[in-house]
Design brief:
Layout (H helix, E strand, L loop, with lengths): L4 E2 L5 E2 L4 E6 L14 E7 L11 E6 L4 E6 L1 H4 L5 E10 L6 E12 L8
Parallel strand pairs: 1-8, 2-8
Antiparallel strand pairs: 3-6, 4-5, 4-7, 7-8
Length: about 120
């Protein structure tokens, strides 16, 4: 199995929303239907930090050949500006298999406005 794609995401402002589109393909580079699998996005200060101490973790059930990790302003508004490490994993429907799909860093910077009401 190949190593996961290492992608450093563009910086975002704390309190902004952002999305990460994910498309699934098979070994022939054809769309792969992973309906029922779980997509897990985890954000940490460093990769050796326990999952229980992750600053953000989002899970969603995949429906089809694509998914979108959606991070909302509420998810990032209280986070410390920092260069975080993240990964995106896929878990089989029965939970017996996990594959790290993508990993890298993302820098969260401080903005001027801290909340919109």
């Amino acid at each position: 199995m190949p190593l996961p794609t290492s992608t450093d995401l563009p910086p975002i402002l704390r309190g902004d929303s952002f999305t990460i589109p994910v498309a699934f393909t098979d070994v022939s580079d054809q769309p792969a239907d992973l309906s029922g699998w779980t997509l897990i996005f985890t954000l940490k200060f460093h990769r050796m930090q326990p999952d229980s101490e992750a600053v953000l973790q989002k899970r969603q059930t995949v429906a089809g050949t694509e998914a979108m990790v959606i991070v909302t302003p509420m998810d990032t508004n209280e986070l410390t500006p920092y260069r975080y490490e993240y990964d995106i994993q896929l878990s089989t429907p029965d939970g017996t298999g996990v594959r790290t799909f993508m990993m890298g860093t993302i820098t969260l910077t401080s903005g001027v406005t801290h909340s919109i009401r």
